[in-house]
Amino acid sequence: MGQEDLMNTAEDVADQFLRVTKQYLPHLARLCLISTFLEDGIRMWFQWNEQRDYIEATWSCGYFLATCFVLLNLIGQLGGCVLILSRNFVQYACFGLFGIIALQTVAYSILWDLKFLMRNLALGGGLLLLLAESRSEGKSMFAGVPSMGESSPKQYMQLGGRVLLVLMFMTLLHFDSNFFSILQNMVGTALIILVAIGFKTKLAALTLVVWLLAINVYFNAFWTVPAYKPMHDFLKYDFFQTTSVIGGLLLVVALGPGGVSMDEKKKEW
Q: Is 12 part of any domain?
């Protein structure tokens, strides 16, 4: 079997998977995507005092402002998750969660940690894809904005979402000299480039979902670490952030790459 035949077989398997899961995949994608916000909102409730004290000590902002920060994170995240899962005011919920990401990036000094910053940007990419999906279900919120076509803003949101999702995988690259790391880096880099440019997008995104799912369960198994250890919270944070990026990739699989992609341009050739 030649390389082209192998690729065609893989695409047939991916298409078959899509046909079987077409009704459920968008719902699963949304659930995965909001999982990190859901977990963080619940954590704000159970770790209210710790979070408030941390913000108060770090920013010297006083008890009241620190409490407002925790309350805003709790209500903003849990409220946004409820709206997204219930399919109500999804666009406003997405903008609210964008605000939460920006707020946490500054408050927790993520801006100066490249790895966490890239993961937050990848999370934003997932929200962009969710925003693009919501545009196809309701009235456009870009009415009156000049564009190249009716769905142009949606297409560029899908492009931006795909490119930002790629940042997650750049944090997983290991610059070691052993064969497995080199192979993993080469295959991973090839797949993220395919997703970014929108070529064989659904197959590449589905492969990345499987790969990322395996890495997530293996490396971020927070359930194996006692809850009182700091590593438990660290792995839990990583696990749900990675799950959210998986949700974004599932949206790419379910919706396709959009108009600004090589897959779409191929149809014109």
A: no
